[in-house]
Structures are given as structure tokens and as C-alpha cells.
Description:
Elements: E1 7-10, E2 14-16, E3 20-21, E4 28-36, E5 39-47, E6 58-68, E7 72-77, E8 85-94, E9 97-105
Antiparallel strand pairs: 1-9, 2-8, 3-8, 4-7, 4-9, 5-6, 5-8
Amino acid sequence: ALASWSTLTMGAATIQTGAIRARDFNTLSVYVKCTGTPTGTFKIQASNDPGDTVTNWEDVTGQTLAVAGAGGSKIFDMSPCYWAWFRIVYTGASGSGTITVTNYMGKRYG
Length: 110
């Protein structure tokens, strides 16, 4: 499955995916690739809010990627997955480029 955005132009701004439901999966990974000359940071945030409205987000420790004037990529391995929702956040400081995001949700519980 693809994240809420699969290819997006980035610059000096904060952008994020929508909430991606993860509660039914025990394995999860996200591949982030950026090209161009961006300077900024990617991070994964998670939530255990019930229902389908997500308002409370926390940064997931160790799930960051800093880019400094050149492209970069990372696979965020979040297995096992212990939260109901996640999203990807990019906070840009300068530069520009393109982000490609692909998430993989593996084995379902049960």
C-alpha cells in the first residue's frame, strides 16, 4: 500500500502524510527516498487514538532521517508494530526536491 502521498515536491516547509492505519498488522516498514538539494528531517510519528479520528501524535524514538543538501533514503523498520496509526513527517529548512514514500504492511494479526 502507498502512504497518503507517494511523490511530493518539498521545500522549506513541514509536510506530512495523513494517518495510516497500522493496528491490524504486526510487521510494518516505510521506504523514504528524496532527491534534489533538500535540507531537513523525516520522522515517524505514531498514535494509539481509538476510532478513525487521530489527534494525538508522538515521535517514534530512533525513526528519523536527516538530509543536508543532497538526496537520501532510508527504510524505517517498525516491526513489531505496537500502535494503531502512524504518519511520516518532513520538516524542511531549505532547498528543494522530490519525496517518494512507499509503505509495506506485512502479516496481519490473527
